[in-house]
Design goal:
7 strands; mainly beta; four-stranded antiparallel β-sheet; three-stranded antiparallel β-sheet; elongated; about 120 residues; Immunoglobulin-like; 1 helix
Length: about 120
C-alpha cells in the first residue's frame, strides 16, 4: 500500500482524492470537475490504474485567456493497492466526483472447523 500512497502524494496539487478501504474492496474517490462519464477512461492493466479525462472548456466569444489554470485533461497512473484486482472493478461519476471501486482478490483462505472426536 505504501507504493500507492507515495504515488497519490505525487499527484499534482490540482488533483483531490480520498482512498478508502473495506474488508472486500478499495474505493478511490477523485474530483474531476466538469467531466462526464463519456469523458472518462479508467482502466486497470498490468497492476496499474490509469485514469484519463478530457473535458471541453468553451471560451466565450470575444474573450481571450489572461491566465489559464483549469486543466482540459488529466492523466493519472497509479499502482493497484496491495491485494486489489481489476476484475469486477466499477466506476461511477456524479457531479464531478469519480468513484472507482476495486475489489480485493480472494485470498483462497478457507476456515476449517475442528470438532472433538471421541477416543482413539
Amino acid at each position: 500500500m505504501s507504493v500507492l500512497r507515495d504515488a497519490l502524494r505525487d499527484l499534482p496539487e490540482s488533483v483531490f482524492f480520498d482512498l478508502l478501504e473495506s474488508d472486500g474492496a478499495y474505493l478511490l474517490i477523485l474530483d474531476v470537475p466538469g467531466v462526464s462519464a463519456e469523458e472518462l477512461d479508467p482502466t486497470v492493466e498490468d497492476g496499474h490504474i490509469s485514469i484519463d479525462t478530457h473535458r471541453e472548456k468553451p471560451r466565450p466569444e470575444g474573450f481571450e485567456y489572461i491566465e489559464e489554470n483549469r486543466q482540459e485533461s488529466v492523466e493519472i497512473d497509479l499502482p493497484l493497492p496491495d491485494g486489489a484486482t481489476g476484475d469486477g472493478a466499477q466506476a461511477s461519476v456524479s457531479r464531478g466526483v469519480l468513484e472507482l471501486r476495486l475489489p480485493k482478490r480472494d485470498t483462497g483462505e478457507t476456515t476449517i472447523d475442528v470438532v472433538e472426536s471421541e477416543g482413539v
